[in-house]
Specification:
Distance between the termini: 26 Å
Radius of gyration: 21 Å
Helix content: under 10%
Structural class: mainly beta
Largest sheet: 7 strands, mixed
CATH class of the largest domain: Mainly Beta
Number of domains: 2
Strand content: over 45%
């Protein structure tokens, strides 16, 4: 398929706004509508052959002391791209992580640091190894299994010759759900992810394809969003090695349109670069 040809759709129905509750990059689970727990960074990628230690900052945004428990799991995504815990194996990163401390008491409006070290127990296979480190805010007395908030930070460790290879089997814009849809087969030994920028504008403001693509700077990952309906960086889940998945990235247009509009994207994926302009015609 060609990724450089314009595509036009005709719809007579009103567009629905997609509301998405996103995990912290790959996953988080909220048990409280007003979480007081914050984690930074939201993802760690490390090459233990060069640097085997990292740290995560845990913040208590509340007005009371907080107890936090730290634990780790092996994981991947299920067929619906939802988080799935897996049993550990000798090549899974959860078996190689040393975490200190694993129980924290954080004063109000304060923060603490959790340190991670990678210590392989066997010879690592080349490529990506992953684990999910969870931070669970416990109830006030810190007892039992009742917890208020649980957030996961994906950890990726790379060993040896890391290969990111992929076939892009499809790239579309869904004007009903207001999202990009990527059909990707990951064929290396590390995950791949579409990374890029997008902009959506009313057709009367967008100009030519060349005009709207000029707004997207893939090298700097910036967008000229002046007058745009929506713009920003893509947000999509990874596709792990040896899998084929459809992953999506939202385009948060916040108004229901009754006139034509244009969506443009520039994206890189496993060393490949694509540009596309989609013209959406409403009411014809």
């Amino acid at each position: 398929m060609s990724y450089l040809n314009n595509k036009s759709y005709s719809f007579k129905v009103a567009l629905l706004l997609l509301a998405a509750l996103l995990f912290t990059d790959e996953v988080s689970a909220a048990q409280n509508l007003e979480p007081k727990l914050a984690i930074s960074p939201s993802r760690i990628e490390i090459s233990p052959e060069k640097k085997a230690n990292e740290s995560i900052t845990v913040l208590n945004l509340g007005s009371k002391p907080m107890q936090v428990e730290v634990y780790v799991q092996n994981w991947d995504f299920d067929a619906n791209n939802n988080y799935r815990a897996l049993p550990p194996n000798e090549q899974s990163l959860d078996q190689w992580l040393i975490i200190n401390p694993v129980r924290l008491t954080i004063p109000a409006k304060s923060q603490q640091t959790v340190r991670l070290a990678v210590r392989p127990r066997v010879e690592p296979e080349p490529g990506e190894h992953r684990a999910m480190v969870f931070f669970r805010q416990l109830n006030e007395d810190g007892k039992g299994f009742n917890f208020k908030f649980n957030v996961g930070v994906p950890i990726y460790a790379y060993f040896g010759d890391v290969k990111r290879k992929a076939d892009v089997l499809g790239m579309e814009f869904d004007p009903i759900k207001l999202q990009f849809v990527f059909d990707i087969a990951s064929k290396g030994n590390s995950y791949v992810r579409p990374e890029g920028v997008f902009v959506a504008m009313k057709a009367t403001d967008a100009g030519s394809d060349a005009d709207i693509l000029k707004r997207l700077d893939l090298e700097k990952m910036t967008v000229d969003g002046l007058g745009a309906l929506a713009s920003g960086k893509l947000s999509a889940k990874p596709v792990f090695a040896g899998t084929r998945r459809q992953v999506t990235s939202p385009v948060p247009i916040k108004e229901i349109l009754n006139e034509p509009y244009v969506v443009a994207i520039k994206v890189t994926l496993a060393g490949q670069t694509f540009s596309e302009v989609y013209r959406i015609n409403i009411g014809e």
